[in-house]
């Protein structure tokens, strides 16, 4: 079964908009895309993050949760929290940062904001023109360890999820079969512990078979995804319940490390 799933993910590569629970925004699994949610869509969710799906700061498995809203059709903002566990030797802060009685327990959380701005809508000029989005996670960082200065993408202090990107997306429809999404992005940050500086490429396929049977209706809720996020090759899927209001997402980072989450959507307009 695992081989069959991997076969489908890599040969039915690259639909409808989906949430990226690992970063708390719209996207594929880890890589950003130029997809945008419907205007006035409110999203909240979270899940289990295996350590390979997180920045280098997390040497252990953790959990996250987030709120996301598309304020205008061209503007999306998010607030994301990722849980910290007290470690005897912390990879970011060194030994003795946490109280010894809390070692091994979740005692804090990393907070970051994300913003996505649509620069160009798909098909604005010609039907073949793609959509373009400029975005950032952890865009501004208050580096109190470096004199309480605010900066963009600190190399070593806070801002663990820092990334800036330009993403391009194009959708291709197949009548009574489904919709393909082709995604290309350039991702960048200044982190020394989690460097991102290169292209990312990915794809997804969402079925739209004729609803003539229960199986067809069930398959139509499935969204297959595969990507190279500029660091690793990942695959996974999203399954929508109740007309896209509830979504379950599964990621296999490096195609073997499991992360999973739930995403809830509410369309305010």
TrEMBL record:
UniProt superkingdom: Bacteria
InterPro entries per record: YbjH
Pfam families: YjbH
Protein name, UniProt field: YjbH domain-containing protein
